[in-house]
Write a structure and sequence with these properties.
heterodimer; A: about 100 residues; mainly alpha; two-stranded antiparallel sheet; 3 helices; about 35% helix; flat; B: about 475 residues; alpha/beta; 11-stranded mixed β-sheet; 15 helices
């Protein structure tokens, strides 16, 4: 086994994703099969190989720090499930 | 021949000669969508009212003699592009109720030419899938055979063009999501070089792989669309500021001296016999057209799928962290506290495949596993990219299958994620290498299902693959066959 049900449960908490018991069961099997498949990469010698983060060579993209038009508070909140006083409203975080 | 059978270039000519109006064209497409969409399920949103208003404005611009190449032409966009004032679902329940407050750069660019946005197209949820069966809005059917998938994740884009529901479509391609459905639906699909087209306003799946591209009836239309969307955008720092050739002018038909490579690793066990024959026939056609066919090697091909599913899922797990129920979309109401609200919202909003990839990506990035999985995959990515650069030192373009088989039946692979992933084996390496490639029709299986051939080009050399594809199209008639729907 590459991954246990307990590890899958741990990862689901890291991912902020509530999973049912059925989902935990099926994901454990599926992730195990996929991790078993990707195991083949370990057979490849990559010593001294520079990792690729972007396939096209990138340079820093600088621009002048000038004020440009942006969303109004109303536009920014237009899709909010809950909003009040120019802010997104969520459950109390600090008691 | 009806309006909907015409290519983008033919419609342009009809508009310029005043033989057609944009309103007339738009109405013809809306009528066709109304009759065919209940069967195919290609559209998530149809812009009935706004499209006709946009067409009227386009007609005024044409009358004023100020038409741009896309003015008045009905274009449909995968529902991954933010489009101001319209819902953008990305095929997911988690964006329920979300109305885009702004336009993606590619949408802004075609709107600036006064193209008509006719609707938003179905897709695999968050562009994760190879069959379009992962959409919260239901599967799309293949116009060539309704029991079969159109491919994915831009399944709606390819099926829409095959069914002649729009003049052209926009899709995105992270591991083959334009090219594979284009092959399965017998249309032309192009994934430009990473950085050629702005990703601003395109909902992110795997940011180092995602790229926007056109899906069209033929190669000339593809060149026309690429011209409209290509170019640097200050809002996307990964878009590249490099010269954009005249793509129409590149369609010279001249293949003299062109060297085409056949990567030996692509012609392996698992490649369907009908597909193999069609690709060999395509190579023979190119030989007849004066190109030189050379065998080349891409030795790390077998590692590409594993490499991709680590990199793409890792990036996805990070990108999709933003769907937390706070600022837009779905929110689970009965949560006990904030963390629980995040967890319940994401549980209710994401489908099975998206959950699977978030979990895999989170695991690959988690403490203790990062070096073994994510970093290792990034190093393998370097080797895969080097394979292509070495091959391109010897040849101008590579010719390969797009997918190992023609379209499969709906439901056939839904219970086996790994088998589904392996159907992208010929397209994934191109995204990892960051270069450009296109799919074009090259035949049909004995069952009557379309087959596509892939042309892979050097980085930023879309012009050469368009020229190569166009010459093939001139010599064959596959692109002229239409699905009976």
């Amino acid at each position: 086994m590459k991954i246990t049900r307990a590890e899958v449960e741990h990862v689901s908490r890291l991912a902020r994703l509530a999973l049912s018991n059925d989902e935990l069961d099926s994901l454990t099997g599926e992730m195990d099969a996929i991790l078993d498949y990707v195991e083949q990469l370990k057979g490849l010698d990559t010593d001294g190989i520079v990792p690729t983060a972007h396939a096209v060579p990138m340079e820093n993209a600088f621009r002048d720090d000038v004020v440009r038009p942006s969303f109004t508070p109303e536009q920014a909140l237009s899709n909010a499930p809950d909003a009040a006083d120019s802010a997104f409203r969520v459950r109390r975080v600090i008691e | 021949m009806t309006i909907c059978d015409l290519t983008l270039a033919e419609l342009r000519s009809g508009l310029d000669k005043r033989e057609l109006s944009a309103v007339e064209i738009t109405q013809a497409y809306l009528d066709r969508i109304a009759t065919t969409n209940p069967v195919l399920n290609t559209f998530i949103t149809v812009c009935d009212e706004t499209a006709l208003a946009e067409a009227q404005a386009a007609d005024r611009r044409i009358a004023a003699g100020e038409a741009a190449p896309l003015t008045g032409l009905p274009i449909a966009a995968k529902d991954i592009f933010n489009t101001a004032g319209l819902p953008t679902t990305c095929g997911s329940r988690i964006l329920d109720g979300y109305i885009s407050p702004y336009d993606a750069t590619v949408i802004a660019r075609i709107k600036a030419q006064q193209a008509v946005i006719i609707g938003k197209l179905n897709m695999d949820e968050f562009a994760m899938g190879s069959s379009n069966e992962n959409s919260a809005f239901g599967a799309v059917r293949n116009p060539w055979k309704l029991t079969h998938v159109p491919g994915g994740s831009s399944g709606g884009s390819a099926a829409c063009i095959a069914a002649r529901q729009a003049a052209a479509a926009l899709g995105t391609d992270t591991g083959g999501s334009i090219r594979q459905p284009a092959a399965h639906c017998s249309v032309v699909g192009l994934k430009p070089t990473y950085g050629r087209v702005s990703r601003y306003g395109v909902i992110a799946y795997a940011s180092s792989l995602d790229q926007v591209g056109p899906v069209t009836r033929d190669v000339r239309d593809c060149a026309l669309m690429l011209q409209a969307i290509a170019g640097h955008d200050s809002a996307d720092s990964t878009s590249v500021n490099t010269a954009i050739p005249d793509y129409q002018a590149s369609l010279s038909g001249d293949l003299k001296g062109l060297r085409i490579g056949l990567p030996q690793e692509y012609f392996i066990a698992g490649l369907d016999e009908d597909v193999r024959k069609a690709i060999e026939q395509a190579a023979a056609t190119y030989r007849d057209l004066g190109a030189e066919i050379v065998e080349v090697s891409l030795p790390h091909t077998a590692y590409a799928v594993a490499c991709y599913y680590l990199i793409a899922t890792a990036e996805a797990s990070s990108n999709l962290a933003r769907y937390d129920g706070v600022r837009f979309g779905l929110r689970a109401d009965r949560a006990e506290n904030l963390i629980d609200m995040y967890m319940q919202t994401r549980a209710a909003g994401f489908g099975a495949e998206v959950k699977r990839r978030i979990m895999l990506g989170t695991y690959a990035l988690s403490s203790g596993y990062y070096d073994a999985y994510y970093l290792k995959a990034q190093k393998v990515r370097t080797l895969i990219r080097q394979d292509f650069l070495e091959a391109f030192a010897k040849v101008d373009t590579l010719l390969t299958p797009v997918a190992p088989t023609p379209a499969f039946a709906l439901g056939e692979k839904v219970n086996d994620p790994l088998q589904m992933y392996l159907s992208d084996i010929y397209t994934i390496p191109v995204n990892l290498a960051g270069t450009c490639a296109m799919s074009l029709p090259c035949g049909f299986s004995t069952e009557g299902l379309p087959i596509g051939v892939q042309l892979i080009g050097k980085p930023f050399d879309e012009a050469t693959i368009l020229r190569t594809a166009h010459a093939f199209e001139q010599a064959t008639a596959w692109h002229k066959r239409t699905a009976e729907i």
